[in-house]
Structures
1.
Amino acid sequence: MTNSCQHNSFNLPQEHLLHRLHTLQREYLHISPQAMQQVAAEFNLPLSQVAGVVAFYSFFSTQPCGRFHILFSNCTSCGYLPDGQNLMQLLAQQLQVNPGKTRTDGLISIGETSCIGLCDQGASLLVNGIPLTHLNPDKIAQIAQQITANISTDEWPAEWFEIHDTIHQRNLLLTTAQPAPGSTLQQAITHGAAETLTTIQQSGLNGRGGAGFNTGKKWQLCREAPGDAHYVICNADEGEPGTFKDRVLLRHHAETLFEGMTLCAFVIGANKGLVYLRGEYRYLLSHLQAVLTQRRNRGLLGRHILNHADFHFDIDIVVGAGAYICGEESALIESLEGKSGIPRIRPPFPVTHGYLGQPTVVNNVETLIAAAHIVAYGSSWFNSVGTQKSRGTKILSVSGDCRLPGIYEYPFGVHIQQILDDCGAQKVQAVQIGGPAGKLIGAPDFNHTISFEDISTGGSFLIFGHQRDLLTVHRNFAHFFAHESCGFCTPCRIGTQLLKNNLDKIAEAHSTANDIETLKQLAFLIQHHSHCGLGHTAANHILDGLQHFPQVFTTHLNQNFVAQFDLDQALESARQITRRDDAAAHLD
Amino acid sequence: MSAIQNTIRIDNQEIPFTPGQTIMDAALAAKVYIPHLCHYPGLPPSGNCRLCVVEIGNRSVAACTTPAAADQAICSNTPELNQARKALTQMLFVEGDHICPSCEKTGNCKLQAMAYYLGMLDDHFPQFYQRREIDASHPDILLDRKRCILCDLCVRASREVDGKNVFAIAGRGTQAHLIVNSPSGKLADSPLAKTDLATTICPVGAILIKQRGYQVPIGKRIYDQHTIRETTMQEHIPSCDKLKHKGHQDTER
Ligand SMILES: Cc1cc2nc3c(=O)[nH]c(=O)nc-3n(C[C@H](O)[C@H](O)[C@H](O)COP(=O)(O)O)c2cc1C
Ligand code: SF4
Ligand code: SF4
């Protein structure tokens, strides 16, 4: 195993299973049973593993997609339902296609997908994997024309694909010059791995991906863990709806990210690093590859980094294929190993048993960039900012109902109200901090702060103005979790589906007070009995909502019993089969 | 073997354990019952059904995957946890189509037995009515995915004991379903035999042996005579000592 990894880093890497399947999907617009058999033979894997992977990841399909394959984001910020319009329906009507079904001539298929991380760019979609932003009914009509005329996306107006990154607030990481390529590695070599680790430890840096584990501690545990090889992995899965700061960091600070990964490698003794890039960000791949090549040419990756006798390290990028759960570190590692993204049993943790069973550091993009800055500018430069328990700054992705969506970097301890003022948010009803998995708060809590000891976030900051129907927001989140649950454990697999159905039922005014009790029961069960963090957090928004905005759930309730079973609706499939729609085919 | 006596406490009962054992291992060895559906002694644990979740302080953990550690104070047989177990069992009932009165497994089914044990009187949650494929291609074995609770036991049994790797679970969320590792995806095309552990271990009526209907009359079946708590204590895969020598690194989950 170890030898083959060494081999991977320094010779031609063996193709990753997800990449092979992506190529097939792109070429043949689906993955056929024959193709799966062929891949299983090529990779010497059981057919069931290949079939399992194809079924697990959203971006693979067993039925042919259209030559134009369009995926609308369904996030509350970059989704297809801005201001009461339904842009997906609009495009589907104009192209005479049903969402989820490929048009019979094979030209077009339209579907929806979880947040694509373009929340500061207006309603957005991916067409054959390429993002198209700032959608409105006019643009939808023009897109329909291009597709009808079968014009290749290469020839669509270039400005449709533009992404304007706006950084509204800069602090430590975004004002200070990025460390010169190789400069922190030189320092690390001069001072040695142990002292470099001490610098990270003294900085008080905690992970920026959500869980907030102390980074110095993580590196130390991994460094001390025995193994045939050590690995450093950058978590660039950024799947939490409303988060897009890693997208901006990957576009503008990839050099510093790779510097941070290389530093980590030096400290823990890794020869190989991996970036797990979410499939939704595939368009960033060529840029990232170019930066890697540049670093190899400068002697900052590869063998004998900066002419050091035994500092060898290289980085591969693996692109995901549409699965939020793969942001969870052990699911991510499973995915890197070419499997479905089912979270592992922990302990053992990745620091001792990670990629290929070896000691592995998994860090968020922002964490690794911060680490490089800390080595460049010192631990006190970093830890003099922030609060006692939350050192440094946090980069937030602000979106939703505000005038200035975009990137905001603040010292930890910043008040929620301050952020709302800075981004021009008025008449704010609620803020969802940390994405659907995070915390929902209303105006009385806007004096709270962003920090690990108060309200913590991986970066998502979703603002809901007074005109928003919060029940719609809850339904959106519940649909998200039901869609993204990996399906491994009972409470999350079935419970998230039941939560979703329950909220839909409330919205359709078919509920009674009893359904609120069921909501609470389900929420508790999912929170306490699930296997991983997805389940532990999936019902947070509902519990917060019931606490802070109970009327959102109760205004739709019925006083009297209503059957949850709509008899007439149940006859619908029978009507379709028999092609009847006369009065006798309906009840009353 | 060191002579140090390591113990944990489950519901205030002192229980010895040896390092490397999970809470479930230690409990079963001491004949303490923690309800479960996806665990079978001798197979690597999975932790998917979540019925065995117990409380250690304010932490909720699955007994079958959590290592026993000295002086753990564990709560298991509490009204709250048994209520949660009942709700999880109800969830499994509504997810599939559990046609108990007409199922050949009735009386021998662990899901049903668990429902009895936990005092479950109704489904509580609305039925899902999912469409899932039946595979009747095999001459001796029927696979009805609508009765499958995705416990992964057949998957592990086939891989670890039968050495055939016939089954896998594919798909995400409620789309998750059992698949057969054969070119056509059909059982007839697989090496599965009716004597395989993978065939016989299924706790519910998802994998059934054909031509054997109602040999034991209803009323005389396992859980007509015993509770699931009683039968669980007898369970063990005979060849399990052999298994211990095989590395289980990649089956950690
Ligand atoms: C469902 C789920 C999704 C996650 N998604 C991400 C993600 O997209 N990016 C990320 O950095 N961490 C994510 N995490 C947290 C990771 O498991 C892990 O804690 C993190 O990558 C560690 O890096 P850090 O210490 O630098 O924060 C997720 C966790 C869960 C439970
Ligand atoms: S909690 Fe949800 S996502 Fe996590 S293992 Fe269970 S089913 Fe999968
Ligand atoms: S077929 Fe039976 S043993 Fe296999 S996963 Fe389903 S319920 Fe478990």
Note: The helical segments of chain B are 23-29, 79-95, 110-117, 153-162, 197-200, 222-225, 228-232, 240-244.
2.
Amino acid sequence: MVKRFPAAVFLALSFGAFLAATASHWDTVPARDHARTNPLAGKPETAVAGALLYREHCQQCHAADAQGDGQKKPSLRTASVRGATDGDLEWFLRQGDLKHGMPSWSNLPQAQRWQIIAYLRSLP
Amino acid sequence: MLLLASHRLRLAAFLLLLFVSLPFRGTAQDKPYFVTYSHDLEEPGNLEVETKSAIARPEHGHHFGALATELEYGARAWWTTELYLDGQTTGGQSTLFTGFRWENRFRPLMHEYAVNPVLYVEFENISAADKNVLEVVGHDVESDLDVPNAVARAEHQHEGELKLILSSNVHDWNISENFISEKNLGHAPWEFGYAVAVAHPLRAASSGRECTLCAEKFIAGLEAYGGLGDTWDLSLRQTSHYLAPVVGWQLPAHMRLSFSPSLGMTRSSMDQFYRVGFAYEFSDIDNKLLGHKRKGKVW
């Protein structure tokens, strides 16, 4: 029993580290925000406007092709972003992640955040 | 006690009405405030160069123009650092460099809340001839601006300033409140002041067109700021208070123009003065200057 204790601690720590490594921004999105849908989705002009806004505000870090800089600024054409709901993305844009260099975009009008999200959805 | 001149009150009420009745359908993003800070910080790696000018004619003094040139750098997503270089020219007197200010703004909380605090710390080394009126504190009054340059330039002020900035973005409105305390590092009391502001873009959604003179490029708002006395006389006696409609225009190529008339609300205030701001933003300046990506940099 006593001998097994260090092994159990090791397992627990490894599992914790694994969870931390796989945790994404979307895990912390409040249920109400997670469930929101993009009210401007479906109109082709929404993604066109989103593309313009992306160029203005996001491109400098996430690159023109949204593939990121290969370092701290991630690609937005990943399974993680595709798997997020519109609500998750809107919440994350509002919040930002200041500690890791992602600014908060709460200063953009809400409609513009939805337009950007429609553009992200239109990316191959 | 505030002695409000009735015609100024009427004018202020009219401007307030005009502002409230503007057809707000939606926006531009940078706040056009001159005195008030919101919780917007400069994006990390960006450098904004802005000139803010104040033009006035005090009742008993000479007309003047003051210019503050501001270099604002996003050091981190949660920390912006700024250097101001101030100068002024007074009619019939002289043109002076009046000093510098170095300020830092920190967001202590890494996420967005209903009310977002920002801590502001500033050191300034300016002469009493400074006329930028970038904040009003203590018992600042109009007659301070009448002192001739030759006399005022000799009085140097080494001051520290702390501000608590609270700011919220609600339904595309920004609402900001600043509490200011300033201390001359010599033998002088702490001076207090406030600045509050609201702003809203004229149009929220982007039209998807490249346009310059369209509603989404404009943001309008209202600022109010003034002095709240000091630790030797914590009263509103002989304090200045201003109400200032503001408008900002996002121009192409990362340029921004802003304009604001300030209207004095008390006898100790200037009747009115005007401000114009022009800003240019250089994005990702450190990568451009260093000519390479900062590998492995932890923001």
Note: Chain B is about 10% helix and 50% strand.
3.
Amino acid sequence: MNTLSENTMNNPAKTAAEPGWLAERRAEGLAQFKTLPAPAPNDELWRFASVGRLKIDDYAPTGAPDAATAEALLERSNLVSERAGRSVYVDDHAVCFEGISEALKAQGVLYLPIEAALQSHPELMERYFLKESTELGSAKFFGLHAASTRAGSVLYVPKGVEIEQPLVNYYWTSTQGTAVFPHTLIIAEANAKASVVDVFFSETKENEALNIAVSNLHAADGAQVFRKVVQDWNEQTTSFQLDTTIAGRDARVKNLAVNIGAERARYENQTRIEGPGANVKMYSLTVAEEKQEFDQRTFQTHNAPNAVSDLLYKNALLDNSRTIFSGLIKVAEGAQQTDAYQTNRNLLLDPTAEANALPGLEILANDVRCSHGATTGNLDADELFYMMQRGIPRRAAMQLMVFGFFEEVIEKVDSEELAENLRQLIHKKFDAKIA
Amino acid sequence: MNALEIKNLNVSIEGQSILKDFSLTIPKGEVHALMGPNGTGKSTLAKVMAGHEDYQVESGTVTLDGENILGEEPDVIAHAGLFLAFQYPLEIPGVSIANFIRAARAARLPNGETINAVEYYKELYEKMDALKMDRKFTARSLNDGFSGGEKKRCEILQMSMLDPAYCVMDETDSGLDIDALKTVSEGVNLMRGPERGFLVITHYQRLLDYIVPDVVHVMFDGRIVHSGPAELAHELEAKGYDWVKESFATTA
Ligand SMILES: Nc1ncnc2c1ncn2[C@@H]1O[C@H](COP(=O)(O)OP(=O)(O)OP(=O)(O)O)[C@@H](O)[C@H]1O
Ligand SMILES: [Mg+2]
């Protein structure tokens, strides 16, 4: 089998019609991928990560799924029934793109596959597509994504337009050994309102896959955007997810990620506050089991005053699983009256699990409120006793407590249907373990 | 025998002996009050009976209607009929009161049976109304951020929803304001009956004006040193524990 880098070189992911600027960005990306060194154990941005477990060369993009597979996965793309639009990709091939209503189109909203947007809105794409990357250690992998991505959706919401229901993007892997590069681009103009759900699923428990996903979210002045990520790859998947948010004046952005799957998942999440008064939340909840490793790197940058960023990452760990939370808050000189918070809570359900935390602050302004904290603990024995005293058996009590631990994040989902579906996904993973 | 019986119970923690040959029998249908100075072992007794694993039981027996409960898991003891209203109820974030009590009820059902949600909520709301608890509390996390008094009401709510044969109430009155004390006492009095026994641990005779006990026990240094009718609580309130120490402790 070709290695991934050879494959990417021989079959660059461009169609005949790709504009010059994009060819340039892809070439730059490829060069970046080829020249940057692989992560090394002594690299500060990869501290505690099992870099030796990163094996990305055995994967390559694969062809479109057959009709039966496409049909079956489309059927299973059902986490959210009330939606403004839906896309379903399998191995980076669109099997369904359910566009938005005529009413929204008439208001100027765009919800399109990347390829279509490149055709119909080249200026918009030139301005935003593949322009933002995290600065948390994965430049090499972003390069590969830029060179390779061909699947994903663009949401553009014009000034003042509000979309009540979410746009839901499903990214599936199906073929053994596939490499996927899903891309979600969200642009909310001033005072626009939208929400997006990105779902990452594997067809079976067995199909091995590599995912390098990127999401770039732009929230202009006063925009309100809620982005939710549901990651439930099978445990044969190596996953990178590189997400950025840029928030303008008074923008309100919520990011919420539920991480359940993958053998090894690197999640980089970066927020840059560029306008005063912005308010950005970053929530995450992770269930780690067996030999899973979740490597979470976050960055909250405040370049404007009077803004709030609030991060809460909760991890529950079973078996021999590992999590790494490394969070940095950076407050620029002029960003006075910043409120920046960062909390990482790790719940160890087995003594063999390992949670690493590396909270960090870099503050150049003098009038700020910042806090960062990480705690790692077990289920509280007295709480367990209390619940059992009511007649609840030990395992059920433990499960209630673990779900209680998650609920702080789940309750922020804002959609009872999705929240319930997420609880079910977690139950599926947990029940065999704990019941 | 139809009673909660504790016989010659010796309990220690970290090598320190707390309960010393403690004996007490509470027949069904009776309310017994247990009073005694701080640190004398009242909460230890309650928690040992409920199956807390931190305590070392050296010797003795505890039976519910003749069935041994010592050494059983806390949930098994709960199913056997013992309910403990905690002196310091724990806060359980993310677990709503409604779901918690429901899980406790579900655990009591035979395999395959499920709870009728409509009937369950109807009963829950009725009992909350009786305890003057805001119905909004059902969705709140159990005891999480509750005031002291709210926690105690929530204990009694659970007690009435779980319908235990024996209720041990550890300082349920502390933290309650005067109105709440009345409300909670009314709730408890409604539960009194020939099929239920109560052990009411308190420092204050005031509670016993509302929940009038059949017997009052005075505990000192790990054992009961004196027992008497309801009036004993008044005497104790008037004379203090020095009186107990002088009059009874010598029997040790
Ligand atoms: N977990 C523990 N570890 C060490 N000592 C303990 C523990 N629990 C109780 N003790 C000790 O046992 C003794 C009895 O405590 P207990 O809580 O039973 O008293 P109490 O009668 O309920 O007091 P109060 O009226 O203050 O509630 C005290 O000296 C206490 O410090
Ligand atoms: Mg006590």
Note: The radius of gyration of chain A is 21 Å.
4.
Amino acid sequence: MTALASHAAAPTGARSRLRRLADSERFLAWALLAPAVVFIVALVGFPFVLALLYSVTNVTVGTQSASFVGLAKFRQAMESPAFWGAVRNTFLFTLVSQALVIVLAGTLARLLMMEFRGKWFVRLLILLPWVAPISLGSIGWLWIFDSIYSVINWTLRHIGIFGPETWPIWLGQPTLAMASIITVHVWRMLPLAAIIMLAGFSGIPKDIHDAAAIDGAGFWRRELQIILPLVLPIVLVAVLFGIVFTATDMIVIFIITRGGPFDSTQVLASLAYYTGIDGGDLAEGAAISLFLFPLLVAIAYLMLRLARRTEVT
Amino acid sequence: MATVETRKISKFYTHEQAAVDGIDLFIPEGEFIVFLGPSGCGKTTLLRMIAGLEHPTAGDVLIDDRVVTALAPRDRNIAMVFQSYALYPHMSVFDNIAFPLRARQFAKAEIPGKVRWAAEMFGIARFLERKPRELSGGERQRVALARALVREPQVFLLDEPLSNLDAKLRTSARDELQQFQRRIGTTTIYVTHDQVEAMGLGDRVVVLSQGKVRQVGKPLEVYDEPADTFVAGFLGSPPMNLIDRGSAILGFRPEHFLPIEARETGNDAVRFTFRVTRVEYLGADRLVYGMLEGGAGEAKVLSRLPSTVPLPVQLGERHEFVIGRRDLKFFDRQTGLRTAPIPL
Ligand SMILES: Nc1ncnc2c1ncn2[C@@H]1O[C@H](COP(=O)(O)OP(=O)(O)OP(=O)(O)O)[C@@H](O)[C@H]1O
Ligand SMILES: [Mg+2]
């Protein structure tokens, strides 16, 4: 008994020291957070600070030295028509694709709530675009929209909607190109949004649905007055994420249209890339990429506050 | 107000096991009926089929002599109170109570008056602006009742509406609920696994076990004249003593099993030799544990003595105890059903 007690009271060796460390919350908190912190500082914080620095200089890809030029690069960017076109496209691209994603993801999530045979397979199919590498998917879409081999056109022509010489050039006409880009982006964002919404819908207790059914609520009343308000906080998070992600992303555009035709699908992110890397004007590219930053911070703040306010229970 | 009837109603969630197994019930207009049974016996399933929230595998539900089996819940003119209350968390108390009215297209001008009437009925008029999360459990339960009452349905369905309240509140809520039902006279079906609630509230009690009705009757009937050993062993705390006596099972309530001094003995009483092994004090009562001796071997039984009756025996000693002949119940050994008395 005494031997046991003294042994427990005076632990020795490296093992017990480790165990003491593992019990210390302060140590654990830091140990577990450290990788994430390193990651964020290296891959987000550092480039962000670099962009801030670049945007107020006249640095280019080739030069070693750079001098401070104040806000001149911002002014230079705002004076070019391509910039304002990109701003317009960014808004159009973000708003339309997010609206579509929310409606489609909401519908999809509701369908996935139902019980039917082969549900697991449908779930798998829906998650596929998210799991598959985006570049691979986009190349598939490139083929779908191809000016000669497009399967859409082939189908439409065989149904008899288009004659032999009149089919649309999906990626060659400004409006169609934008629509194509939005389609691909919606296809890509849909799985995650649907899964997030599915979580929101599943979080509503069964009794609430039953109570609404007994109280006599019809389809629209149930959707709009019960279900929508209850999933709103989680939908807002999905929307926030979607907006920030869409407004800062360029992979789809880079692979499918490269901003064309005539800059009609050029968004700020892609313009910043083409100006800064391809065009070599690092400073102006940095200035362009920073343009949306205050706006996105404001949106994020607003959405999070709204989500907090509508929080239930 | 309406009658409710089920005809051979069954529910199979899986192929092997019936949750509800061919139940026939008739509930007359204005009755307060209680479904009582152990957990998992199918009470909620039966209630949900009457509500239309669950579709029966077989059989029919009739409300007011009309078959409603295929109708949606909203078309049955019933109201339900859930164990979780199922209040809409994002709506104020007012909007919660007004919701069924709005859903049924009541005139806009009519709604505030009706909501106020229902809220006053349950004493929650001062909470109308609050959200459910800002209410106590008892207040939430009243809001749920007000929401059910407000559109004056034909039938009230309540699924363990008091089980989330503390013991004291439950007693007063039970009392209020009964008075309220008497006042409005709406046919009410009340589900519980608490026999005290069932005894206190019901005009009649339906005792269920494993998806089947074991007995239907007034509270005293099911208590005094149990139809089988299940009902005998389920009702009462402690429940009826059941002992094996050869061809039959003999049953008697602990409170009828008294020391010989405590009872006038005539030829209507049966004597037993009882060896006391333990006494438990419960305040107003004492539970006396022991062995019944003689006859066809020993059997564990217990007696419930009011503390006003002296206990004339020490632990470990034998004593003569008696039971009134009318208080002895006999059950068939095979089926468990009541049988005629046999000579002891
Ligand atoms: N949705 C369901 N799917 C499969 N089985 C179910 C379902 N609902 C209930 N059951 C089963 O049916 C039986 C009856 O359940 P029910 O909920 O009606 O019991 P209960 O009498 O209300 O019990 P409790 O007092 O615990 O609420 C149980 O064995 C339960 O496991
Ligand atoms: Mg239940």
Note: The interface with chain B takes residues 205, 207-208, 210-218, 221, 225-226, 229-230, 310, 312-313 of chain A (CB under 8 Å).
